[in-house]
Amino acid sequence: MIKLNFEKYKDKVKACWIGKNIGGTTGTPYEGCREYLSVEGFSTPKGTVLANDDLDLQLVWLNAVEKLGMKGINSTSLGEFWLSFIGPYWNEYGIGKANMKAGILPPLSGDYHNEWKHSNGAWIRTEIWACLQPGRPDVALEYAIEDAQVDHGSGEGTYAAAFVATMQSCAFVFDDIRTCIDIALAKIPESCRVAITIRKVIECYESKMPIREARDTVLNMNADIGDGWFEAPSNVGYVVLGLLYGEGDFKKSILYAVNCGDDTDCTGATVGATLGILYGTKELPKDWVEYIGDKIESIAIMTGMGAVSYPKTCSELTERVVALAPTTMSCRLDWTYTNVGYGKTAYVKIGFTDGDDEIPTNMKESYISFVRGKEVMDKLRPNTINVEMLLAKAYVTMLDGIDITPNGELRVKIEFEYNRDVFGIITNRLSLRWWLPEGFSVTGKNFVCLPTWRSAHSAVTTEEYVIKAGEKVDAVNDVVIEVKFDGRVYRGYIHIPLMG
Fold it and tell me: Distance between CA atoms of 315 and 311, rounded to whole angstroms?
């Protein structure tokens, strides 16, 4: 059990939003610059806060949590809020929205024909999950992934979001940024480009490589992704570069990141927010805080819809976030199985106190060894639909994608496992009924047996099917699988959209 002083937590949340505004306003005028820069501070008049979608999207997510509660948050519900309240069609935002409007649900909406899924749109909006799950990095990671999959699917943008959310959640309980980076790095796959880039930045810093040379190293190693521009691995690398080379100095850290060029509003904003969480308002430079003020300016929210009320100041945003914290931090306190034996590990429990923080001394090792975040990352696969039904979970992988031609065939792999988080193990057989477009057919088993209770702690049942189209194929062809659990009243449904 970790106990956080509530006022200290609240102060860190406020410093997060102010820091994000400072870094975003510093970097925005240089967004897209390819050369190494020499920015020394604000280029805007005093009292000016530049609008930034990095923060805007999180104001919509705040409304989603206020309306649905934390347990109502997943990629599908966030997708609905996105379609209703977020206007721009920029890059991955536009591809994700267009796919959802065509009936392609997340995470496929972020994967399907998305050349921008390795870009920056997701890791720039993670602070809301860290602030609602302080000191619970594996939970913050899960929500950041649900968020990122809407427009990044299984791309590097989603790995980047998992890293940043974990790092920021850890910043509520640790006072050094390197510890936060190490824990976050342990949660994402070693082979993903984000992880490779971060390890390279750490190597550059530890070898005392000059900062510009370190920046060029990162730029060159990722030149093959998106023409080397506006991609997540390098830009998260610039964030880590600023945090390490800045060595705790707020101004230097932001300026080091911004001067790397590229997506400068995002790198500056994330560095500012992360250090705000780490140190609180007392370490924010007073002259910059006074210069920027408390306002929030919006650019990406569709305010005319009427259902969304978003904060106009960092102070108001702070009050609304911390008001949610006692309930959001009580979610996911259930036990979850590990991958070995019958051992169990629990999510970290957080409580508030009006006294001193109470943080166990071995928390770094505990966070790194905790398996939940790694298990979540392992299920992040291209062209996969994740369906959490009341009694079971299904992972549907479209082995040949979702594009279908007349008389064409597509292979489908479905993995079933118990939804132990809710009911434990309740039945061993599932019956499947396929609802297909006219002229379509499917081959494969209609009955699925789940693992017995003796092995269910680690096993899943995998079945493969082949869907064959008829002579006529529509623009969107909806396939629905009805899942009946023997001896139970509940039925689950899996939706697979096939694109003609």
Answer: 8
Beta bridge partners of 379: none
Average pLDDT over residues 246-256: 98
345, part of any domain: yes
**Which pTM value belongs to this model?**
0.95
CA distance 269 to 25: 8
- CA–CA distance, 158 with 181 (Å, rounded to integer): 17
Between strands 447-449 and 476-485, the pairing is: unpaired
Mean pLDDT for all residues in the chain: 92
Query: Are 444 and 308 in the same domain?
Result: no
Domain check: are 389 and 481 in the same one?
yes
Q: Are residues 209 and 238 in the same domain?
A: yes
Q: Note whether 409 and 304 are same-domain residues.
A: no
Domain that holds residue 164: 2-373
Mean pLDDT of all residues in 75-86: 95
Pairing type for strands 2-5 and 350-353 reads: parallel
- Helix (H) or strand (E) run with residue 170 in it: helix 156-170
Same domain, 366 and 425: no
In which band, very low, low, confident or very high, does the pLDDT at 337 lie, cut at 50, 70 and 90?
A: very low
Residues with Cβ within 8 Å of residue 476, at least 6 apart in sequence = 102, 103, 497, 498, 499, 500
Task: Summarize pLDDT for 469-492 with one digit per residue, the tens.
Answer: 999 999 999 999 999 998 899 999
Is 374 in a helix, a strand, or coil? helix
- Among the candidates 333, 354, 373, a domain finishes at 373
CB 320 within 8 A of CB 62: yes
Distance CA 313, CA 405 (A): 52
Q: How many domains does the chain have?
A: 2
Q: Which residues contact 247 (CB under 8 A, 6 or more apart)?
A: 253
282 and 133 assigned to the same domain: yes
The residue length of the chain stands at 500
Q: Are residues 430 and 407 in the same domain?
A: yes
The DSSP bridge pattern shows strands 491-499 and 2-5 to be unpaired
Please indicate, yes or no, if residue 440 is contained in any of the structural domains.
yes
Q: Are 6 and 355 in contact (CB under 8 A)?
A: no
Determine the 3-state secondary structure of 231 from DSSP.
strand
Residue 378 is assigned to a structural domain of this protein? no
Give the model's pLDDT for residue 336: 38
Domain boundary among 352, 373, 394: 373
Helix, strand, or coil (residue 433):
strand
Q: How far is 2 from 9, CA to CA, in rounded Å?
A: 13
**Helical (H) or strand (E) element with 228:** none
Residue 344 shares a structural domain with residue 387:
no
DSSP 466: E
